[in-house]
Write a structure and sequence with these properties.
Layout (H helix, E strand, L loop, with lengths): L1 H9 L8 E5 L5 E5 L6 H7 L19 E4 L1 H4 L7 H7 L9 E3 L13 E3 L6
Parallel strand pairs: 1-5
Antiparallel strand pairs: 1-2, 3-4, 3-5
């Protein structure tokens, strides 16, 4: 019995976390495991991914976490709210696939999500 308990407590506990792929404008790629419930922005900030400034801390009050979502992922995300669309109007070079990474909540469904970071933030 003791051996079974020891194996339970001493074996590493593996928690699956979705991987988010961040591509910078200078062709650096960061593949980060991000905990479910966090945002794509929080995953970048916590892991020092360059190019996502997140000046407002995720309050959707700036556009400094702007990303371009890879085309094959764009329609798998929840739709943009009006406030996000308004903030994206202030982003640097917005495109139809632009999103604020603070508004993308990570879940198992987003495992492998790939975003491109613009060359600068607004």
């Amino acid at each position: 019995m003791f051996c079974i308990l020891a194996l339970f407590f001493l074996s590493p506990i593996y928690i699956h976390m979705p991987k988010i792929i961040y591509n910078t404008h200078d062709n650096e790629t960061y593949t980060i495991e991000v905990q479910n419930g966090l945002t794509v922005m929080e995953g970048a900030v916590q892991n020092d991914v360059p190019g996502i400034d997140a000046d407002c801390g995720g309050g959707m009050a700036c556009a400094t976490c702007h990303v371009y979502v890879k085309e094959d992922w764009f329609n798998k995300l929840p739709k943009k709210e009006d406030g996000e669309e308004d903030m994206l109007d202030m982003a640097f070079e917005p495109k139809p696939n632009s999103r604020l990474s603070c508004q993308i909540i990570v879940s198992d469904d987003l495992d492998g999500l790939e975003v491109n970071i613009p060359s600068k933030q607004a």
